[in-house]
Write a structure and sequence with these properties.
Layout lengths: L10 E5 L3 H12 L3 E5 L13 E3 L6 H10 L2 E4 L6 H9 L8 H6 L2 H10 L7 E4 L2 H11 L4 E5 L9 E4 L5 H11 L2 E5 L5 E9 L5 E3 L3 E6 L2 E7 L5 H17 L4 E10 L2 E8 L9 H4 L4 H10 L11 E8 L2 H7 L8 E4 L10 E9 L2 H17 L1
Parallel strand pairs: 1-2, 1-4, 2-3
Antiparallel strand pairs: 5-8, 6-7, 6-8, 9-10, 9-11, 9-13, 11-12, 12-15, 13-14, 15-17, 16-17
Helix pairs in contact: 1-10
The structure holds adenosine monophosphate.
Length: 378
């Protein structure tokens, strides 16, 4: 595909104005771009660093048209962009990532079918629409324990129901009835969760970031460690799977794939066609961040080769954590601090993050434990 070049000085439109849009915008501003953002919340995190904001709902087609009129190219910070709007932008030649990436990643059924078609390692799954199909799936296809997830709209563990044993089936049936189309997946007793983040340019060049390891608390990402502490075999499997996805669905931009690791096997879980929370460490720990590579890909600039300092730990600041850490910067004196500028602090809401960078992961882990222990134990 010929590169669609959008040069510095031009305007990049971003659909969605949260922290991902903000960090994309910051990277783009360094390169000399203007930023327009579409988001319903006035002065949202991205608007604070952008040149202009269109205050409207993401699925307001007129507002998307307005964003297109004021921009030279458009990208997004989340996958739940209105598909009709995305197709319209693609037709106008303004969405280098294309609408198809969104069609696949907005829907777990599409995502899993694509992975199965490409013979990627996934845990067994079935699509169910009612109680009968759920029973059938459990009796004939997938042994307990399983997890039932909504096909659309779930994130951070929302829209999930785990069935450990027969007694959970009734609750799960109600969950399916309420949500109509669901995916039932075999529960993977994984040892680790990892993510592979890469960027693919419009002419098919792929640049990979180090594979990272993720620890969740209550289904929300708590900590990312890079590089992931995994064997070379697992790493190569993870990278090969990421390359298959990248080529298979013609990815453009930064893209993330979450995977489970059980012994020497990997199982692909979820994908995101955008920079990812587990890639925030790249801002300080690599010569080029997941956000800058994304902007480069979308604007048709060359991708940079990725160099990594050797070790990074990123901690999410959820809810009140952000106040604790911003008031105690002398305690976390080695951390790079990011505060997203969200108006309201809510429990579990991602308000900011800390990144610690070093050259050696064990030493860095000790340092992070020392500097964060006071908060953890209090
Ligand atoms: P998801 O929304 O698919 O990313 O799932 C959120 C979290 O639930 C994952 O990060 C895992 O910790 C857990 N989870 C989801 N699916 C499975 C599965 N099939 N087996 C084991 N754990 C899972």
């Amino acid at each position: 595909m010929p590169q669609n070049k959008v040069l510095p000085g031009s305007t990049i439109g971003i659909i969605g104005g949260g922290q991902l849009g903000r960090m994309m915008a910051t990277a783009a501003k360094h390169l000399g771009y203007r930023i327009a953002v579409l988001d319903p919340t006035p002065n949202c995190p991205t608007a604070q660093v952008a040149d202009e904001q269109i205050v409207a709902a993401y699925d307001d087609l007129e507002a998307v048209g307005q964003l297109a009129d004021t921009s030279d190219v458009i990208t997004y910070e989340f996958e739940n962009v209105d598909l009709e709007a995305a197709r319209l932008l693609e037709t106008k030649g303004m969405l280098p990532q294309g609408a198809d990436l969104l069609r696949i990643t907005q829907d777990r059924e599409q995502e899993k079918r694509m992975m199965a078609e490409n013979e990627l390692p996934i845990s067994p799954f079935a699509i169910v629409h009612n109680q009968e199909e759920l029973q059938q799936a459990i009796q004939q296809k997938i042994e307990l324990p399983v997890v039932v997830k909504t096909c659309r709209g779930g994130y951070d563990g929302k829209g999930q129901f785990k069935i450990e044993n027969e007694t959970d089936i009734e609750g799960a049936s109600e969950f399916v009835m309420k949500n109509k189309r669901c995916i039932v997946e075999k529960w993977v007793p994984f040892e680790k969760e990892i993510s592979v983040i890469f960027t693919r340019s419009q002419n098919g060049e792929i640049s990979l970031f180090p594979v990272a390891e993720n620890e969740h608390k209550d289904h929300v990402l708590h900590q990312t460690i890079a590089p992931a502490q995994i064997s070379e075999t697992v790493k190569q499997k993870a990278i090969a799977a990421a390359r298959t996805v990248a080529e298979g669905i013609n990815v453009v931009g930064t893209f993330a794939i979450e995977m489970f690791v059980q012994r020497e096997e990997i199982y692909l879980n979820e994908m995101a066609p955008r920079p990812h929370n587990s890639g925030h460490y790249t801002i300080e720990a690599c010569n080029v961040s997941q956000f800058e590579q994304h902007i480069r890909a979308v604007c048709g600039l060359p991708l940079l080769p990725v160099y990594f300092h050797g070790a990074a730990i990123m901690l999410n600041l959820l809810g009140d954590d952000v106040d604790y850490y911003t008031n105690n910067l002398d305690v976390v004196s080695s951390a790079h601090v990011h505060v997203y500028g969200k108006g309201e602090v809510k429990p579990k809401r991602k308000m900011g993050h800390l990144t610690f960078v070093g050259t050696q992961i064990q030493q860095l882990q000790q340092l992070v434990t020392q500097q964060t222990k006071q908060h953890i134990t209090s």
